[in-house]
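Progress against Task 2.4 (sequence-to-structure conversion) is shown through the following example record, which the project officer requested during the mid-term review.
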Amino acid sequence: MLDGSVFGQEVLPDELRTNGAGSLKAVQPVKNLAMQSAIQLGKSKDNTLTGVVATPDGYILTLASEAEPLKPLRAFLPDGTSAEVREVKREDRLNLLLLKVDRAGFMPAAWGESLSLDIGHWVVCPTEHGSEVRLGVVSANRRAIPNSGAVLGVRFGLDDADVGVIVEEVAADSPANVAGILKDDLILAVDGKGVSKNEAVARIVSGRQPGDLIKIKYRRSGADKETEVRLASKSRVLMNWAGEDFGNHGTSFRTDNYPEIIQHDLPLGPMDMGGAVFDLHGRAIAINVARVDRVTNYALPVEAFLPDLLKWLREDRNAEKEKAKKREK
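C-alpha cells generated for the chain above:
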C-alpha cells in the first residue's frame, strides 16, 4: 500500500476519494443552483456556518443551535462583501433561525418536495464554505427523532457536600470537557443559581436547549472560578462517553428532538449544517440540521418548515411596513 497500490491495483489519489471530479461533473447544473443560494454566517469569514437564501430580498434560514457561538452574525456574500443581519425568528422546536439582510438581488433556493424521496435516492449539499458540493444518498427511512434533553456531560458524586455538587467524571469531548471542567471540581452555581444537590443542576439544565450557553461557577483547589458551557444533546454525549471517535471531525450540538428528519450519508461537517439539501433537479427539499456521526446527517424536510417559514415572512414584512408608516408620520 505504501507504493500507492492495493494488491497490485492502483488506488484513487486523495483528491478523488471524496466525490471525485467525474462524479460531480454529472451534477454540475445542481451544483450551480446549490452554490448560488448558499451563504456563510459568522463573526469572521474564517469561522462560519452555512445558511440558505430563502427569498430574493435577503431572508436567510440557518441552524439556531450552531449559530449561537458565532454571534453577532454577519452574512458573507458571494461578491466578497459582508453585511449585518437582523434576527427575525428563532424556532427552537425546529432548531431554525430566520435572518434578514438589508439588501436585494439574492438568488434564493427553489423549494421542492421531499415526500417522493426513498432510500438510495441521490441528494446534493453545499460544503467548503459554499464553494463546493458533495453528493450522497438517502440512507434510512424518514422518522421523528425523540428529545433526549440538554446536558453538561458530567457525572456527579453523592450529595454529601455542604456547599455545591462534586464532579465525579467528565465525558470526553463533552460541553463540560471543552469548557475546562475537571474531575473533583465543586460546582457552586449554574446560571447564577446556587446548587447543592444533583437534581438542582439537572433541573436547571433540562430547561435549556442544546447549543445554549450557560455560566458555571465552580471551586478548584480552594479557588472559585467561572466558565461558560455550550450545552449539547444528551444522546450526543452518551454516544461518545468512552471517548470513541464516532464523530471524527465533529458533531452538532443538537442531534435530536426533531419532528421528522431525512437521513443521508454526505461527507459534511458540523458547520455545513444549516445549508439546504437538493435533489437532482436542483430543488431544495430539506435543510441540514445535525451531523450525528461519521456517516449520518439529519435534514429537516421542507414539508416540516415551509408553512412556518411563509408565516414568519408574512409577519415580518407586515411589521416592517408598519414601522415604515410610523417613521413617515
